[in-house]
Amino acid sequence: MYLLFISVLVFGLVVYFMPKKITYFEMYTTSLFSTVLQLIIDVYLEFKYDLYGYFSPGVDYITLWVVFWIFPTVNIIFLNFYPKSRTLLCKVFYILGWSAFAITYEWFAVYHSDFFYYNDWKLLYSVPIYPILYILILLNWKIIKTLHLKALK
Questions:
Q1: Which of 28, 54, 61, 134 is the most exposed place for a label (fewest CB within 10 A)?
Q2: Is residue 11 within a helix (H) or strand (E), and if so which, with residue range?
Q3: What is this structure's pTM?
């Protein structure tokens, strides 16, 4: 439980105090996307296949802090500092760095807290998934920016 509260506090403070390089509209819409994506994935992997879970089996209210706070804030921080005007290699390393952070965070959540647990899931399964998720977040961000520009015309 401590990891959840520390994460909520730290990620929230980072989002609040960071210099904003993305608009509030982008923060809101990309957070909605990441939340819906996470919920869809959890419906199948957590509830249908029982591969992992948060805190304890079944649905509980404390998991809502993960869904509606941790994932959106990490998404906002990731996008805010994304090196969009840098080289492709820099962008690849940025995604890999965030993926390494996510793997480390997941490892800590599973093995050093009561935040997250595995049933048939293994940490190794997450390794290729995180870069894909970050790329999906970036693609969604690009779509949102394109649609927003079209709406303003």
A1: 61
A2: helix 2-17
A3: 0.93
Cβ partners under 8 Å of residue 130, min gap 6: 98, 99, 102, 103
For residue 62, the 8-state DSSP code is: T
pLDDT at 58 over 90: no
Q: What is the pLDDT of residues 116-138, one digit of tens each?
A: 999 999 999 999 999 999 999 99
Which residue's entry shows tokens 């994935």? 41
Cα–Cα distances in angstroms (integers) from residue 80 to residues 14, 27, 42, 45, in the given order:
11, 9, 25, 29
Q: What is the pLDDT of residues 6-39, one digit of tens each?
A: 999 999 999 999 999 999 999 999 999 999 999 9
Sequence-distant (6+) residues with CB within 8 A of 3 are 108, 109, 112, 113, 115
CA 46, CA 57: separation in Å to the nearest integer?
9
The domain spans of the chain are 22-152
